[in-house]
Write a structure and sequence with these properties.
single chain; seven-stranded mixed beta sheet
Length: 264
């Protein structure tokens, strides 16, 4: 297991060299954001507090604020480099956190909605991380999770991104329930078009694709087109796709944790 310092240096480098563009406008990132907004039922009238865990440079936060200006939106992020890359208007809403440490999440807890997208697969102890997240969720609150699905789909993109694992649906369900939450919805998303896109990414090279600026040039136009095409997979998905989404609910107050959970 890496030391906290080594992990921080690794993810600072990933944000500086690869992730800033793909998280802001990459087709798969935008797809996750769209589905998170749908599953959480966010509208222009939405109110309350939302925390994005693993918020990176605040790309999803920006979309939520644009859609639901009445929400109080905050972010928790491990990498200071990612926070430094955020738009100045978002930086005051972002705070450092370590999901593998002993401290509670920032911003005071009692959130009505929390999102945790493409985070748990990076962590040695995903159970500890989810306990931290569950503790920050208010009673009756909702948690949206996205992780890569199916161990058999392990490939170059997992290696490039520093993943520790991919998840089986039953594995994620058990993880959520162990944290004291109830699974309201869980499904694998993706079909022909996402499979073709991810295969093309492997052939081109994950590093090359991740550095594409989605706001510039031919590559940017292609990224926007792929995002529109991927919307078809929301209709054509057969439950065996590469993305695993879950919506969990905290239906009761959780007892204080008295001992550290076992490392997964």
């Amino acid at each position: 297991m890496q030391s906290p310092r080594a992990s921080r240096e690794q993810y600072d480098a990933l944000w500086q060299e690869l992730w800033a563009n793909c998280h802001a406008g990459g087709p798969m990132a935008r797809t996750r954001y769209r589905i998170a907004i749908q599953w959480l039922g966010l509208t222009a009238e939405s109110r309350g507090r939302l925390l994005d865990v693993g918020a990176g440079n605040g790309a999803f936060m920006s979309q939520v604020l644009h859609r639901s200006s009445g929400l109080e939106v905050y972010g928790a992020e491990f990498s200071q480099a990612a926070i430094d890359l955020a738009h100045p208007t978002l930086r005051s809403r972002l705070a450092n956190c370590d999901l593998q440490g002993s401290q509670e999440l920032p911003w005071g807890g009692h959130f009505e909605r929390i999102t945790c997208m493409e985070v748990l697969e990076h962590l040695p102890d995903d159970q500890l991380a989810l306990r931290h997240i569950a503790a920050a969720l208010g009673t009756g609150g909702q948690l949206f999770i996205s992780v890569p699905a199916w161990a058999r789909k392990w490939g170059p993109q997992d290696v490039t991104a520093g993943h520790v694992r991919r998840y089986e649906p039953a594995q994620l369900r058990q993880l959520i329930e162990t944290a004291g939450l109830e699974v309201g919805r869980l499904s694998c998303w993706g079909g022909l078009f996402s499979a073709l896109y991810l295969r093309a990414t492997d052939l081109i090279g994950p590093e090359t694709v991740m550095t594409v600026n989605p706001s510039r040039g031919v590559a940017g136009i292609a990224a926007k087109l792929v995002y529109q095409v991927l919307k078809l997979d929301s209709v054509l998905t057969l439950g065996r796709g590469p993305q695993l989404f879950a919506l969990a609910v905290k239906s009761r107050d959780l007892a204080p944790q008295t001992e550290a959970p076992a490392t997964v």
